[in-house]
Amino acid sequence: MDNARFVLSRIDAEPGLGLVTLRIVDDDDEAPDALIIPIGTIKRIELRKAPEERLARVGFSVRPG
Q1: Rg for the chain (alpha carbons), in Å?
Q2: What are the CA-CA distances from residue 18 to residues 1, 7, 54, 61 (Å)?
């Protein structure tokens, strides 16, 4: 899978021990739904620009108080 590129819906920290689960956006029936890979094999992560309404849902929120 050298130089493979995927569109992800999310990255999960499971199963742990240096491995992560990549949840793939399925535009093609032949593409896997998820990949479990060593975190060290990730060479690059690209972030795409999102519409403004989606940006409002990204990030962290601070509780008042």
Answers
A1: 15
A2: 18, 21, 30, 28
Rounded to two decimals, what is the model's pTM? 0.60
What single string gives the DSSP state of each residue in the chain?
-TT----EEEEEEEEETTEEEEEEP-SSTTS-SEEEEEGGG-----PPP--HHHHTTSS------
Query: Once rounded to an integer, what is the mean pLDDT over residues 36-43?
Result: 90
- pLDDT digit string (tens) for 19-35? 999 888 876 667 678 88
Is the separation of the CB atoms in 21 and 36 below 8 Å?
A: yes
Average pLDDT of the chain is: 77
Instruction: Tell me if 34 sits within 8 A of 24, measured CB to CB.
Output: yes
